[in-house]
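Need a sequence for this fold. Nothing fancy.
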């Protein structure tokens, strides 16, 4: 890792302040806004709630057919090169970027990004998701919720369990979903807190001014695999693929004590 600040070591979580210029964040939001669809969870993830909208941005090595797609590919290439530079993980190990939007009342409950190591179907293309890179495209004030929370992480600042990171436009988080042994690190499980509208934001008369000030959380997620990941030409890349039950493995408590 290069250029970040470690926030936790169990699991390994790092913060990159000012990772993207605000202008690029705003341009990305303009690109993804008209593509938003309701996100879906894998059928086996019945204990996880996710209420957001999302879309995929195909990897920069996908051919662009128009000037508009060329500009999009240029931005994605810029983002992916920066991610590869700070993580030292090649671009072709990454899944396509996933864009997500959380509005008032929306959240993503506690979940892992790694796959069950016994699930050969999910692991045959690229292997395990060894790391996640999350970029905040918008700022969400503390009073509006929306934080990324790792309940099992030890915050290096407070030395207490639970790491909480508030979205700031242009900043990014990197965390590792596996231990150095290659086993999934269950401490990397995380959640996106519910977005709420602070009372002082909403005029008593319910005017459009209040609607315009509703907090919105925009993020980009990049899952990084152990081996090169083959990108399908089909743009219906699945919104989510979790197959892990909780606790995921008999070694859960042993891993937590590390």
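Here you go.
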């Amino acid at each position: 890792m290069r250029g970040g600040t470690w926030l936790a070591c169990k699991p390994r979580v790092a913060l990159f302040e000012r990772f993207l210029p605000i202008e690029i964040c705003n341009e990305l939001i303009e690109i993804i806004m008209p593509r938003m669809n309701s996100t879906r969870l894998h059928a086996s993830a019945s204990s996880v709630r996710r209420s957001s909208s999302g879309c995929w941005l195909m990897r920069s090595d996908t051919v662009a057919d128009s000037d508009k797609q060329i500009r999009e590919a240029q931005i994605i290439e810029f983002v992916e090169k920066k991610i590869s530079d700070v993580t030292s993980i090649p671009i072709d190990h990454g899944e396509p970027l996933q864009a997500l939007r959380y509005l008032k009342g929306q959240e993503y409950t506690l979940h892992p990004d790694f796959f069950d190591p016994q699930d050969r179907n999910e692991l045959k293309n690229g292997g395990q998701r060894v790391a996640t890179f999350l970029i905040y495209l918008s700022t969400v004030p503390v009073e509006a919720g929306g934080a990324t929370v790792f309940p099992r992480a030890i915050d290096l600042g407070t030395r207490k369990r639970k790491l909480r990171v508030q979205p700031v436009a242009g900043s990014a988080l990197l965390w590792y979903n596996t231990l150095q042994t290659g086993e999934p690190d269950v401490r990397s499980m995380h959640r996106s807190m519910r977005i709420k509208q602070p009372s002082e934001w909403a005029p008593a008369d319910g005017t459009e001014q209040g609607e315009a000030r509703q907090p919105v959380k925009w993020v980009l997620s990049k899952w990084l695999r152990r081996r090169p990941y083959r990108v399908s030409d089909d743009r219906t890349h699945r919104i989510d693929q979790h197959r892990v039950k909780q606790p995921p493995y008999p070694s859960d408590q042993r891993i937590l004590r590390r």
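For context: The first helix runs from residue 22 to 32.
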